[in-house]
Amino acid sequence: MENEGKNNAKMTFWIALIVMLVFVVFGIAAPAAFGAVADSAFNYIVDSWGWSFILGASIFLILIVFLLLSPVGEIKLGKDDEKPEYSNLAWFAMLFSCGMGIGLLFWGVSEPIWHYMWPPYGEANTAEAVHVAMQYSYFHWGFHPWAIYAVVAGSLAYFSYRKGLPMLLSSCLEPILGRKGIEGPWGMLVNIIGVFATLFGLATSLGLGAMQIGAGLENLFGIPSGPVLWVTIVVVTTIAAIISTATGIDRGIKYLSQLNIVVAVLLMLLVFIVGPTLFILNMFTQATGDYLQNIIQMSFGLDAAGAGTEGWYGAWTIFYWAWWIAWAPFVGTFIARVSRGRTIRNFIVGVMLVPVLVSMVWFAVFGGSALHQTHVLGDGSIMDAVGADSALGFFSALAGFPASSLLIAVAMFSVAVFFITSSDSGTYVNGMLTSGGNPNPPLPLRITWGAIEGAIAAILLFTGGLGALQTASIVGGFPFMIIMLLMLYCLLKSLFAEMREGTLPLEKKRIQDALEEIKAGK
Question: SS3 of 210, please?
Answer without folding.
Answer: helix
